[in-house]
Amino acid sequence: MSGDVVLRVNGEDRVLHLDNRVTLLDALREHLRLTGTKKGCDHGQCGACTVLLDGERANSCLLLAVAVAGRAVTTVEGLADGAEPHPLQRAFIAHDGFQCGYCTPGQICSAIGMLAEAAAGLPSAVSADLAGTAAVDLDDEEIRERMSGNLCRCGAYAGIVAAIREVAGG
Hints:
This protein is an alpha+beta fold and 170 residues long. It folds into two domains: 2-75, Beta-grasp domain (Ubiquitin-like (UB roll), Roll), CATH 3.10.20.30; 87-168, [2Fe-2S]-binding domain (DNA polymerase, domain 1, Orthogonal Bundle), CATH 1.10.150. Helices cover 30% and strands 16% of the residues. Strands 2-1-5-3-4 form a five-stranded mixed beta sheet, with helices on both faces. α2 (87-94) crosses α5 (157-168). The mean pLDDT is 94. InterPro entries: 2Fe-2S-bd (IPR002888), 2Fe-2S-bd_dom_sf (IPR036884), 2Fe-2S_ferredoxin-like_sf (IPR036010), 2Fe-2S_ferredoxin-type (IPR001041), 2Fe2S_fd_BS (IPR006058), Aldehyde_Oxdr_Iron-Sulfur (IPR052914), Beta-grasp_dom_sf (IPR012675). Pfam families: Fer2 (PF00111), Fer2_2 (PF01799). Residues 3-79 form the 2Fe-2S ferredoxin-type domain. Keywords: Iron, Metal-binding, Oxidoreductase.
């Protein structure tokens, strides 16, 4: 079965005629031509397809487009402020946080969501305060744990962690 779906992507409502089985990832890439979001494993294991859904990170390959109708979807294309790149985009460049770049859009979207989670006090497996009563200090171990759902086949992790640490610090 198919029908019209209204997706709010990067601040703009987009009406798409989709089969109900189309994933958010495929709607973004194939129907809206927003190819920054990458299809890696298509099983929610690599993080290449990470987008922000109402400000929280989500694997777009695991979500049906019809299920996110009416919610705010932000892709890597929607992060810049006009011609000014998002601070994490600038930091990834400055710290060489990418090699082939395939995972980079998902890494950046995940990092933005992760920074919001840490600021809200949400703990990870390595957080000292598991009750979540205070903002989390994002040291390298904390960043690596929180970003563990995003894989980089090239191994640019040192630059990724440094970029996130820079933005988290100020």
